[in-house]
């Protein structure tokens, strides 16, 4: 018996973990997504199709910065690109198409938030924003999105040694808008980044934060809040990379969903690298499904490459509206619409209260109240007609 050995092409092994994904500034290095890729499996690709085209006609986008120094950076101008490396096609297209990036520099102690207003005026748009907190700076930045657009947006965040930066990204797009945002940050020695994503408006909103805790003693607090109405798709793919020693990570995203076709997607990836000794990290996602026809997907992942850590864990939970809570409140004379409002508001307010800026917390609470009023009114009306 003769055995013949032949060489064959190696089997294709798909990229599974966030740390393995390729990076490139050249859009031609990325294949057009098919929906089979791990990072596109849960995303409605048809809506994002214009953002895959490097030659798409440009739409109008206004960016206004209040109470902070701002300048323009071309490709090759530092610090643009010192942190950001596109990991998907829309981010690479935005890197090329955004010929000038807005550069916001933060220094010293700032008592009032810096507001960056992004307003869509229709069409397909691309943007790159660099937010740099210089060493020992202490500042809050509110990045607010309004209007109508199909936008690919890159946000590059640099948190210098000993700095404390809070970035709150609020998505209040008009119906029909599409927003694919890639946020990438580096947090240096003894620095803290509190990153908050609040998504309400828009047809498809995908905000993906990627945070590298590079310096010893660095810390990241990543919080998210979303309210998905009928037909909306709200998504976040979170990546927290513990690179330095004695780093701390706290991730908590909460979402409420209501209406036919309402959908949320949360994917949380935490990597504790081989040099990240003494790390303490935890991630969690909680979803409240308020009506039939809504769907929440939650996928936490944890990779640990060193055994010398203080702690690491993850959790995920998705549940329906608690009828017992509703009954309890109604039995004490609280009308059903108000009872529903109290339960949902209590669930979501945990994220708002972590922001630490009273004026912004009040504003976001009012925004939640508006969403609840619209959704609860529709729910009660449907119940009455049934």
Automatic annotation (TrEMBL):
Domain of life according to the entry: Bacteria
Pfam families: SUFBD_core
Span list, region Disordered: 16-36
Compositionally skewed regions (Basic and acidic residues) per UniProt: 18-36
InterPro entries: Fe-S_cluster_assembly_SufBD, SUF_FeS_clus_asmbl_SufBD_core, SUF_FeS_clus_asmbl_SufBD_sf, SUF_FeS_clus_asmbl_SufD
Domain SUF system FeS cluster assembly SufBD core: 120-347
PANTHER family recorded: PROTEIN ABCI7, CHLOROPLASTIC (PTHR43575)
Family according to the record: Belongs to the iron-sulfur cluster assembly SufBD family.
Record protein name field: Fe-S cluster assembly protein SufD
